[in-house]
Design brief:
34% of the residues lie in helices and 23% in strands. The chain is an alpha/beta fold. It has a ten-stranded mixed sheet, sandwiched between helices. Strands 3-2-6-7 form a four-stranded mixed sheet. α5 (170-177) links the parallel β9 (163-167) and β10 (183-184). The model is unreliable at 316-320 (pLDDT under 50).
Length: 321
Amino acid sequence: MTVLTVTPNPSLDRTYEIPALVPGGVLRADGDRVDPGGKGVNVSRAVAAAGHATVAVLPVGGPEGALLTQLLAELGVEVSGVSVAGSTRVNISLTEPGGALTKVNAPGPELTGDESRALLEAAAAEAVNCGASWLVCCGSLPRGVPSSWYADLVARSRTEGVRVAVDTSGPAFAASLAARPDVVKPNAEELAEFAGRSLATVQDAVKAAHEVREAGAGAVLASLGATGQLLVDDSGTWFASAPVATVRSDVGAGDASLAGFLTAGGGREEALASAVAHGAAAVQLPGSRMPTPRDVRPEAVTVTTDVPFDLPLSHNVNGAV
């Protein structure tokens, strides 16, 4: 299978491991690393780490964009780049021993109308040319790109018979639903934003997921942080969780989870177990490193249709994923 990812606002992610975050202080890192970043980029990295073919479509600008392309090639990710005038952004993450994460995300370049259209054309064409099993639309839209951009790409790809997954938020997420993506992957906060109300329990999340499906999504793979994950589709609702002993970084964990779901077929219990196993493995790795098959423990995942509706949603990264 080939997974094509589209990341309109990719990044270089620099992660520093620090003893503790002290505002206003001079911090000395115990370790640091630079990884290719952006949600779709991370999905491609996880797909490649699992041994599957993947192509990443993204805008490339400046020396940062050139380094991003080089790093992805070293990881076995084929890049279909669209040159843009602005430089690819650099994001900073500070991780503490207890799992606390502080992130500074740069805004990224503002794309012109011509650059936005060129990126859309490149993604739509590549989905057909590479025979993609899945087209994955991921992350925030850069400045200058309309909120309907993902919806346009979803509609064009589905016309060509390509299955589409969407993982974004805000107006871009809401707009994409009208184009009927096969699966969407919101987290609890994004579900709450779409529903227009706070979510306190798993039952609240299930209700919001049904509302997302009513708006056009074929299936909803919802990440509930430490509480677990939900899969809601036309055949039912599943809940899954796995224990996590030590959290090092949750950067890219949701993207690894989506990659696990798609590479396992993109539906039902087996794919949900794969999603949770990949996410649990990712949070135990440094920075935004993606898990390989030897890191993933699907046997530790519990999947059930007996959904714990009264279970409170947790905002703690430690525990189940």
